[in-house]
Amino acid sequence: MFEFLTRQPQSVARLGGQLSIEKLEDRAVPAVISGVTYQDLNLDGTRQANEPGISGVRITLYSNDNQVVATTTTDANGRYQFTVRDAIGSGPTIRYPSKFFLLGGTYGRQTVQRQDFIIRQTQPENWINFTNNELRVSVTQLNQQITGQNFGEILPGSISGRVYYDANKSGTFNSGESGIAGVVIVLTGADAFGNSVQLTTTTNAQGQYRFEGLMPGSYNLQEFQPTGYDQGSTNVGTLGGTAGLDTISGVRLGQGEEGREYNFGETRNSVPPPDPIRTITYPSKFFLLGGVYRRR
Predict the structure, then answer these.
(1) 10-30 pLDDT per residue, tens
(2) Domain count, the chain
(3) Whole-model pTM?
(4) Residue-wise over 111-136: b if at least 16 C-beta within 10 A, else e?
(5) N or C: which end of the chain has fewer CB within 10 A?
(6) How many CA atoms lie within 13 A of 169 on its CB side?
(7) CB 219 within 8 A of CB 240
(8) Low-confidence ranges of the chain (pLDDT < 50)
(9) Which has the closest alpha carbon to 37: 77, 84, 82?
(10) Range of the domain at 189
């Protein structure tokens, strides 16, 4: 319970001046806890003025013993606020004496008991948490304004493409050319914080593949050559990079970007026609004489 002081004079006496004896009553006083869920554009872990808020994110306030105190969702600007009036558990409590004397001033004493809270964010869908989904705060004084309890999020990116049969050997994917299913594609590299990344997928029935949920970073792709096909062209997609033999390196992925059309083409060399079938006609009757077939 957060409390404040009101004065209600009970009696008045004179002793060389005005002497008031007052009763002090307890009243609830709010403490305010607030913050923002935002997109951390520059990946520094601190909310900047130009970084947009994320609306509709569920935020829950817990007491220190893990009891729910209040729940809210972020507004259109990503902001949330809790006004704490009667928290579960004890304190902080400010106690005043039931009586004190006023003689040219106010005399009294107060004590404050700290109260701790936990703020938890429910991870918003299609975002990557960058800071922390749990914060701890302490209320230690009357009318305390605890601001800046922020949650930073990163918008993930993706890299996609296909493995296809380059029927006309044009070096690029054309409408009508078929995809090759079951081809293994490996993504390696490092994200913007230097963490190593290695992911593997296989192409679907249409020859398509996709790596999603990626942090900003620099990535490489490798195709494992499918059996029954000859080496074709490797196509760099929309975010650039360098093509090699069954590889694409140096794909720089920014926050929320989609790298598309990282394609691997395959060909088939012309198969020479089989030898023509030769027909040998024998007489209706023959016999072997010294290894030579003769008519009878």
Answers:
(1) 444 444 444 444 444 444 457
(2) 2
(3) 0.70
(4) eeeebbbbbbbeebeebbebbeeebe
(5) C
(6) 7
(7) no
(8) 1-28, 86-111, 296
(9) 77
(10) 157-267
Residue listed under structure tokens 């296809």: 164
User: Do 16 and 137 belong to one domain?
Assistant: yes
- Please report, in angstroms and rounded to a whole number, the separation of the first and last CA atoms in the chain: 126
Instruction: Flag whether 285 is in a domain.
Output: no
For the stretch 266-272, contacts whose Cβ atoms lie closer than 8 Å and that sit 24 or more positions apart, written own/partner, are 266/163, 266/164, 266/165, 266/166, 266/180, 266/225, 266/226, 266/229, 266/230, 266/231, 266/232, 267/165, 267/166, 267/169, 267/229, 267/230, 267/231, 267/232, 268/165, 268/228, 268/229, 268/230, 269/230
Q: What is the pLDDT of residues 89-104, one digit of tens each?
A: 344 444 444 444 444 4
| Helical (H) or strand (E) element with 244 | strand 242-244
Whether 135 is in a domain gets the answer: yes
DSSP-derived letter for residue 106 is B
Residue ending a domain, among 100, 122, 154, is 154
Closest residue by Cα to residue 216 from 282, 138, 130: 130
- Residue 240 backbone phi and psi in degrees, to 5: 85, -175
